[in-house]
Amino acid sequence: FFFSAEALISYVGESTVRLDSELKKIATSLGAGGVAKKEDIRSLVSRTAEVKPWEFSDALAARDVLECERILSHMKGQSSFGLLALSLSRIRDLIATKALERRGDIGSLASVLGRPDWQVRNYRHWASRYSSVELRMALISGADTEKAMKSGADADLVFERWILSILDRGAK
């Protein structure tokens, strides 16, 4: 239920009045004894809270194409340059995760990255979805993407193509 509650708050925000209203709607829809899953939140709740940029980098790290597309569609005001920087940072974090795993020192991940444990709790799982080569190529192609975005090309389109190329590599 924790992830469902987290999903609900990300969709609605922290207004207790709005949360109460949406919880009643979910309870009515699922009936007595129903268990709300993240998918239920997506289908039953209207997003009123602004999408946070790290939600996108989480979806990228999880290699979730549909979630990346959904989040991007709700982030029209967000700069592609900012999202590129955030994405590249997450890719570097996953590279570091893989390196620490190879060394047998994954327990130091949070301190190496300078983050609290709760922020890196999914990194090991996410890193397992990519090969080291894929992450390295994503980082290299990210530099090319930034260059193309700054050259006058449609920055949003170039960024989206880069994201799809990263996510598509795993499907092949």
Describe this structure in words.
By secondary structure, this protein is mainly α. The chain is 69% helix and 0% strand. The protein has helices at residues 2-12, 16-30, 38-44, 53-61, 65-73, 80-103, 109-113, 123-127, 132-150, 155-169. α4 (53-61) packs antiparallel against α5, α4 packs across α6 (80-103) and α6 (80-103) packs antiparallel against α9. The longest helix is centred in the middle third of the chain and has 24 residues, at 80-103. The protein starts with a helix and ends with a helix. The mean pLDDT is 88.
Summarize the structure.
Helix content is 69%, strand content 0%. By secondary structure, it is mainly alpha-helical.
Which keywords apply here?
172 residues; globular; 10 helices; mainly alpha
Give the number of helices. Answer: 10
Principal-axis shape equals globular
How far apart lie the N and C ends?
33 Å
How many DSSP E strands? Answer: 0
Name the helix and strand elements from N-terminus to C-terminus, one letter apiece: HHHHHHHHHH
**Average pLDDT level:** 88
Radius of gyration: 18 Å
Blueprint of the fold:
Blueprint: H1 2-12, H2 16-30, H3 38-44, H4 53-61, H5 65-73, H6 80-103, H7 109-113, H8 123-127, H9 132-150, H10 155-169
Helix pairs in contact: 1-3, 4-5, 4-6, 6-9, 9-10
